[in-house]
Amino acid sequence: MIKKPAIIALLLLILAEACLVILLDLNLINAPAFPTFAVDSATAVQLIAPLLIITSLALTYLLFKYTEKEIEINNQRIYIDNLRESLENLRAQRHDFMSHLQVILGFLQLSMGEEARQYVQSLCSEISQPTRIISTNQPTLAALIRSKMGVAESKGITWQCEISSDLREFLVPGPVITRIFGNLLDNAIEACCRQTSGEKRLWLRLYDKEGEYVFEVGNTGPAIPLALQERIFEKGFTTKKEKEGHGQGLFIVKSLATGYNGKISIQSSEQATVFILSFPRWKELN
After folding, report:
1. Is residue 281 within 8 Å of residue 226, measured between CB atoms?
2. Do 262 and 212 form a contact (C-beta atoms < 8 A)?
3. Confidence at residue 257, expressed as pLDDT on a 0 to 100 scale
4. C-alpha distances in angstroms, 18 versus 35, 47, 62?
5. Rounded distance, CA 59 to CA 277, Å?
6. Closest CA to 106 of 118, 97, 115
7. What is the model's pLDDT at position 172?
8. What pairing do the DSSP bridges indicate for beta strands 158-163 and 201-209?
9. 3-state secondary structure at position 161
10. How far, in Å, CA of 68 to CA of 278, rounded?
11. What DSSP assignment string belongs to 1-62?
12. 270 contact partners, CB below 8 Å, separation of at least 6
């Protein structure tokens, strides 16, 4: 965060520089009529140059800190949005939980023990998938995936999740995880919503492969032509009809992934579109 004393000091420095420039101008241009103090051009440059350098460095530093703060605020905003989604999903799950209990109670009151047992087994199979997600060593990713699962299910999209790694050596920071996978999952959900026929499916696969963590985010939405696949990660490029406000997500994903030695690619056909993201394990980097 940029502190107030630093800003005041910079403003005073700029003011002093402006005053010095004015005095030197008066001396060099109007010396005969308005003498101030004797100084030649070389001395004037020697006086002004250090101030200009110091001011430029200070402005660059403040701009850097401001940009850094903006990125941090944006990351926090995304994180809060995902938390809000998680809370909404928890409320919905509470309502569903009460409904499930009422169904089980109804079975028992009607002496339908076998039907109650089958119903409980079906619930357990549904619960096992989120449990596998939570068992990873990345609580931010687990919370994000669980939140997006709720969003997908509310839109009638079938969600499949295969996790065969605990991500113990995946050291990408939480806010970066949120931006990368939040964008990929949001894009997959939007693609499924544009699907006009067939079952809408979205899946996430997470596994280890040759010293890397590999993430696959796939969907059954419309195919992306090969010519467009080559441009999909460019800044401002989008396949959506509404160009306004789009074309940043995948560019951000690739930029962030590259910053942590990650790689991303796309495979798309009439059957499915899959984004493949890989990161080296921490031990492999040391």
Report:
1. no
2. no
3. 92
4. 18, 12, 20
5. 37
6. 115
7. 87
8. parallel
9. strand
10. 26
11. ---HHHHHHHHHHHHHHHHHHHHHHHHHHSTTTS------HHHHHHHHHHHHHHHHHHHHHH
12. 223
Amino acid of residue 61: Y
Give pLDDT, residue 187.
Answer: 92
Q: Work out the widest C-alpha separation in the chain, in whole angstroms.
A: 113
At residue 107 the predicted structure's pLDDT band, cuts being 50, 70 and 90, is: confident
**For residue 276, what are its two tokens?**
């493949």
DSSP string, 60-82: HHHHHHHHHHHHHHHHHHHHHHH
Q: How far is C-alpha 188 from the geometric centre of its chain's CA atoms?
A: 15
Q: In the structure, what pLDDT confidence band is assigned to residue 108 with cuts at 50, 70 and 90?
A: confident
pLDDT tens sequence across 1-29: 455 666 666 667 677 766 666 666 555 55
Q: Where are the alpha helices (DSSP H) in the chain?
A: 4-29, 41-109, 113-134, 139-154, 174-193, 226-229, 249-259
103 phi and psi, to 5 degrees?
-65, -45
Rounded Cα distance between 9 and 24, Å, is: 23
